[in-house]
């Protein structure tokens, strides 16, 4: 699928004045706790038909913490419902996102259009595969990446934890969520984040939200395997935050009972990678 630039709002690498609030000591301390359990979707977000969106409260916080004293745009190679770009736009920070599903691209645009703000910072929405990123973005033009890639093809698997119906992204062959082989999936992630690495300024953070996966008897530690991929590309792992989502799971079952003990996964990993600073 050839990428198309849907929005032509300027998102250059100039350090624009933004509206990021200063973090006081109390807020800094709260954000520094390694488990975040105080983030929830608002009423509007709960009504949005996207299989794996995360709340603006999460992306707002990540922008507040990791864009500080940065320049350039905020980047999301897996745009989805647009939460990352919505947060950047609210703070007056230029941003760009890639999305292959037309319905989610339109959803993101509708959400952005509801936000009052400086139109000169309106995000660029690019309809296409993030593996074509270098066709659009110059090296060292982004000050932060916040994203959440497909969790392999897990959205196509039966939900044993809460029994909810399947909701997946679509049938596009370019969708990483349709890849059946795990190593091929990791290789595709590598192809995306190799270009993310090039686009980021030295010292910039790349924050990736992922969940580990179980398929029957096999467990796939995605957060560990992704870290191996990222380190191979040149990133280093700066830290990990646990996003506790138990408040969203109200129909949990005793998995495997009474034969094989299985863990109900109600958390995700906020993996904090950083591109090394220039010496």
From TrEMBL:
The keyword Magnesium does not apply. Its EC number is 2.1.1.-. Keywords: DNA-binding, Methyltransferase, Restriction system, S-adenosyl-L-methionine, Transferase. The keyword S-adenosyl-L-methionine applies. One of its GO terms (molecular function) is N-methyltransferase activity. InterPro entries: DNA_methylase_N4/N6 (IPR002941), MeTrfase_CN4_CS (IPR017985), RM_Methyltransferase (IPR001091), SAM-dependent_MTases_sf (IPR029063). It holds the Pfam family N6_N4_Mtase. PROSITE patterns: N4_MTASE. It catalyses: a 2'-deoxycytidine in DNA + S-adenosyl-L-methionine = an N(4)-methyl-2'-deoxycytidine in DNA + S-adenosyl-L-homocysteine + H(+). Residues 26-110, 144-279 form the DNA methylase N-4/N-6 domain. GO terms for biological process: DNA restriction-modification system; methylation. Belongs to the N(4)/N(6)-methyltransferase family. N(4) subfamily. This is Methyltransferase. The lineage of its organism: Bacteria, Bacillati, Bacillota, Clostridia, Thermoanaerobacterales.
């Amino acid at each position: 699928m050839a990428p198309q630039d849907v929005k032509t709002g300027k998102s250059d690498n100039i350090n624009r004045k933004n509206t990021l609030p200063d973090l006081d000591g109390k807020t800094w301390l709260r954000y520094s706790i390694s488990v975040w359990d105080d983030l929830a979707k608002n009423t509007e977000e709960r009504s949005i038909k996207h299989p794996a969106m995360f709340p603006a409260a999460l992306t707002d916080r990540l922008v507040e913490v990791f864009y500080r004293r940065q320049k350039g745009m905020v980047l999301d190679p897996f745009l989805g419902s647009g939460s990352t770009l919505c947060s950047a736009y609210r703070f007056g920070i230029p941003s760009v996102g890639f999305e292959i599903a037309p319905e989610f691209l339109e959803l993101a645009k509708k959400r952005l259009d509801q936000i009052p703000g400086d139109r000169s910072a309106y995000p660029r929405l690019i309809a296409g595969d993030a593996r074509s990123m270098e066709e659009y973005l110059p090296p060292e033009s982004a000050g932060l990446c916040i994203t959440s890639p497909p969790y392999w093809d897990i959205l196509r698997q039966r939900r044993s934890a809460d029994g909810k119906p399947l909701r997946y992204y679509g049938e596009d062959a370019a969708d990483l969520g349709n890849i059946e082989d795990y190593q091929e999936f990791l290789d595709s992630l590598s192809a995306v984040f190799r270009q993310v690495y090039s686009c980021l300024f030295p010292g910039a953070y790349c924050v990736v939200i992922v969940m580990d996966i179980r398929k029957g008897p096999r467990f796939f530690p995605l957060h560990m395997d992704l870290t191996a991929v990222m380190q191979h590309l040149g990133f280093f792992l700066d830290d990990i935050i646990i996003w506790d989502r138990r408040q969203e799971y109200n129909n949990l079952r005793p998995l495997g009972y009474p034969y094989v003990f299985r863990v109900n996964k109600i958390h995700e990993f906020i993996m904090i990678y950083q591109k090394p600073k220039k010496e």
